[in-house]
Design brief:
The chain folds into two domains: 271 residues, 3-Layer(aba) Sandwich (Carbamate kinase), CATH 3.40.1160; 93 residues, Roll (Archaeosine Trna-guanine Transglycosylase, Chain: A, domain 4). Helix 3 packs across helix 4 and helix 7 runs parallel beside helix 9. It is built from 14 helices and 13 strands. A hairpin with a 5-residue loop joins strand 11 and strand 12. The structure holds adenosine-5'-diphosphate and ligand VHF.
Amino acid sequence: MLTRKNLADAKRIVVKVGTSTLTHATGKLNLLRIEKLARELSDLANQGKQIILVTSGAVGAGMDRLGLKEKPKTIPEKQAAAAVGQGILLHIYEKMFGEYGQIVAQVLLTRADSVNRKRYTNSRNTLIALLNQGVIPIINENDAVAIDELKIGDNDTLSAMVASIIDADLLIILSDVEGVYTANPQTEPNATLLSEITDITPDIEELAGGPGTLRGTGGMYTKIQAAKIAVNSGVTMVIASGGRDGVVREVLQGNKVGTIFISKENRLQIRKRWLAFGVTVSGRVTVDKGCEQALLTGGSSLLAAGIVEVEGDFELGNTVSIVSGSGRELARGITNYSAEDVKKIMGVHTNEISDILGFKTYDEVVHRDNMVLLV
Ligand SMILES: Nc1ncnc2c1ncn2[C@@H]1O[C@H](COP(=O)(O)OP(=O)(O)O)[C@@H](O)[C@H]1O
Ligand SMILES: N[C@@H](CCC(=O)OP(=O)(O)O)C(=O)O
């Protein structure tokens, strides 16, 4: 378990850098900062550390190249900007890391890569193979193709998922603030920095506001959520300012910079960690015998017709537990409908959903791709 005292022992380190750190207020890339980061990380790699960089900035770089002044409003436009920007980003990283003698590799992930067990294992194997060859994987979400329901949505969560997948020792999130403050420092000038957070209580979660600039995505909220994944996966996490020269080195020296979240003592088993990616289980649905059979042996999705009971207060996108009539947990998966809506449509045929709810966004309550069997 890593604390401030022994951070220098961290061998496998994930560093996440946000758009607010990678770009100027003009929206253009902050090349000096990217260069310094590449140099610092290369030096750590030279010391024998295994480095993984999770980088944002594709949408920002694409917007700049396309001459867009505001974030695109439609998803396809945002995806187009990301597709343009991702190439630009990688080109710069490849050049800068290359100058310091490092080999980099682009890895683009979506939620499907963690929800699906095979893809999860495959991502893990690829990343570890790269690290074993001394390559620095440079990771972003595959924004150009990640459709809404299979999106991670922010790179804070993505970086924690990556750290968890590859058994990292340490995750460093670099942003445009020094760390977590008692309130958003942009709006509360008297807010003070919290140097260590030992327990992510609801009070701590409430401190966290949204992004500080129009360029950022998740703000402090997603960083705290990322910390939950990290600490439960045995990964110590530090949030620090990407604007500080030599910040990664300072963190590793155990200097009191940023906010540290100390990992829990025991890493969850890999399978458990994978399940935890669906975040917490927000509720449960009980299914009938036929549905149980279809799920366990037929490779089916969970349809409303097979559901006989709903418990908990979940929303679309939450993870639910799927249990048999006898209360046995069969699977976990991400629900396409809220608890309120599932209560209205349980037991009915898919064709009837729109008549009952007035809409039907999906045929399945839980799509097979977003489900994991537990038996
Ligand atoms: N309690 C808080 N402590 C620190 N920053 C906060 C807090 N609440 C909200 N924020 C905002 O979070 C921003 C960092 O997140 P974000 O803009 O998404 O940056 P990044 O691009 O690095 O992910 C800060 O600039 C700050 O305005
Ligand atoms: N994947 C997106 C960034 C998403 C994101 O979380 O951004 P940020 O809050 O700046 O870390 C991109 O490359 O533009």
